[in-house]
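fwd from M.: "can u put these together and see what the complex looks like"

so here's what she sent:
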Amino acid sequence: MVLIYIDQAEQQIKKSSLEAISYGAALAKQLGVSAEGILLGTVTDDLAGLGKYGLQKLHQVSDANLNHFDAKLFTQVLTEAAKAANASVLVFAHNLNGKAIAPAVAVKLNAGIVTGANSLPDTSNGFTVTKTVFSGKAFAQINIDTPVKVISINQNCFGVHMQEGTCALEALSMAIPAASIKVTATHKVDGEVPLTEANIVVSGGRGLKGPENWGIIEDLAKVLGAATACSRPVSDSDWRPHHEHVGQTGVQVAPNLYIAVGISGAIQHLAGVNRSKTIVVINKDPEAPFFKAADYGIVGDAFEVVPALTAAIQKSKA
Amino acid sequence: MKLLVCISKTPDTTSKIAFTEGNTKFDENGVQWIINPYDEWYALVRAIEIKEQDPAATIHLVTVGEADAEPIIRKALALGGDEAIRINMQSNDSFVVASQIAAIAKEGAYDLILTGKETIDYNSACIGSMLSGLLDLPFVSLANHMVLNGNTASVKREIEGGEETCELTLPAIVSCQKGMAEQRIPNMRGIMAARTKPLKVVEPIAVQATTSIKTYDLPPAKSGVKLVASDNVDELVRLLKEEAKAF
């Protein structure tokens, strides 16, 4: 049985978990076993409706003490649940929480793990998972050599797939161990699309000349429902907050569309964005290395091209 | 306060990536090795800052690697570690590496174990989490701020669209990313001192690997950029909609 960890925040299931369900359901079909989910805490979403992503059964430990993420506690609860359900493969989203607990759960289950998988494993001869390595500069095919296996999948690499179906619900009751951390404050930036969850990212670099010029980036992001990002020199100069820095040593993103404005495309920046499906580069320098990694490009002045592009997209959506 | 900082050796960020032996082995030819930037800039420097505030604190460094890892561990000592432990083996299996570090951690009874958020070669982000599973310790991942107060820590971690602050009692494990500290450059005094700091080499414990690398592949080359004239953004919108189906 394939057991998929369903991650929630503020009592809502994350988009990355819907993708993990789609992936886990496809893997279960490939292996000829059932696709089941495990959810910790209480959520307001329609749980039976998770069947339309391919989930057949959902095990829920509905204890409000589990509404705050706690890596050690969640590892303990998930390990118990996976053992009780006799799971042969566990699937996580390779998101912030997945990174924190999937390896620990693997250790507890004596399972081999591959984090950041890009596609379904090859199960024709063993169990081989492909992942990106060297910050996107290469792929590795890795065999998992243990009976129980754990995979976490890169965000936006498999997609959310819908089908017919409803999901059976099963309450799982267990003694919940004591919390190991206490969350004392949560700070969210209002109205901003989270960078790692975004389908579209609009990113600005030094070519924008100063923080006062970010309005054109924000306007373009707004018409696209996109998150905003920046290159390292921009965040190092405090033009933009550090959490917007995309690159090898900042945030790595893999959106459907990445629009880079006034970014030359240093190898370290490319390592943070090269898993994007489509890359658009707008730069006045035709020699900017980013054009070599781009799908579409415009050589031109960002201050003219970007507002025109914003208007054109607005018009196309009208 | 006893701190353990996990240090990994990785190729420099500008390295050209190539493979040998039928694409089964990373080609180390001409590769410049560095301390994994997350381990150095964030985990190690934060540990050094803690020691600067509390001179009674000790910083141990641990790395799993063969003799060719010594230059980077000496550099880490030059930045400010007190002593280093090198576990004499090379492995690509995160479980094997984490098990070696866990054995050292158990022996050393550390208050705080710091790792980088991931290495820039295998990008697995496994070691901190695996250590928490192996040692049954609280774990905060992707931390960008940490303040210690006696035997408690207040740590900020990244969440989708923001951050949260959590409090925990030591001992604990924290994986560090941007924001935690600022990059430093070793000074001459540090480099001289590092030559005589203890660097203990220990043999690995026996652990069975859970994964094996079958092969490496380089990504297919991009088919080439399609340039659109700067006065024809409507054409770009059409291509993005109809060809790339990007929105």
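replying to her w this: Chain B touches chain A through 77 residues (CB under 8 Å).
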